[in-house]
């Protein structure tokens, strides 16, 4: 169960990272409120998973999901470059997440 919650926490991290783009420096109320809510949910869920999972594993997986997801959504939503090198680096992050899951 902790792993499922950790994935959800990582998805909320992606949500708040992407949300930051829409807050316009926290000058827009609704995007800012949604981003702050996603931040809180993400960190609370991460903290909950750390009751069961090792702190290093949980944090690394959480940030890895956030980083990989944010890069991929940046490509899809903001036309950021999808070079072979960038996608290869995202694949390495995903491989690291899988490796941590298999060894935890």
TrEMBL record:
Compartments where located: Cell membrane
Lineage: Bacteria, Pseudomonadati, Pseudomonadota, Betaproteobacteria, Burkholderiales
Gene3D superfamilies from the UniProt entry: 1.10.3730.20
InterPro entries for this protein: EmrE-like (IPR037185), Small_drug/metabolite_transptr (IPR000390), Small_multidrug_res (IPR045324)
Statement: the UniProt record of this protein carries the keyword Lipid metabolism: no
Single GO MF annotation: transmembrane transporter activity
UniProt keyword annotations, A-Z: Cell membrane, Membrane, Transmembrane, Transmembrane helix, Transport
Annotated transmembrane regions: 27-47, 59-78, 84-103
UniProt family annotation: Belongs to the drug/metabolite transporter (DMT) superfamily. Small multidrug resistance (SMR) (TC 2.A.7.1) family. Gdx/SugE subfamily.
Organism expressing this protein natively: Ramlibacter tataouinensis
Primary location recorded for the protein, binned into one broad class: membrane
GO biological process, one term: xenobiotic detoxification by transmembrane export across the plasma membrane
Topology with respect to the bilayer: Multi-pass membrane protein
Protein name per the record: Guanidinium exporter
Listed PANTHER family: GUANIDINIUM EXPORTER, SMR FAMILY PROTON-DEPENDENT DRUG EFFLUX TRANSPORTER SUGE
Cellular compartments per GO CC: plasma membrane
């Amino acid at each position: 169960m902790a792993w499922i919650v950790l994935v959800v926490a990582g998805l909320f991290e992606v949500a708040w990272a992407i949300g930051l783009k829409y807050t316009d420096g926290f000058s827009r109320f609704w995007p800012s409120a949604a981003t702050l809510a996603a931040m809180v949910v993400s960190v609370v869920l991460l903290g909950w998973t750390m009751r069961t999972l090792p702190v290093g594993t949980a944090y690394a997986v959480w940030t890895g999901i956030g980083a990989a997801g944010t890069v991929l959504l940046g490509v899809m939503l903001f036309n950021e470059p999808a070079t072979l090198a960038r996608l290869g680096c995202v694949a390495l992050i995903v491989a690291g997440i899988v490796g941590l899951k298999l060894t935890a």
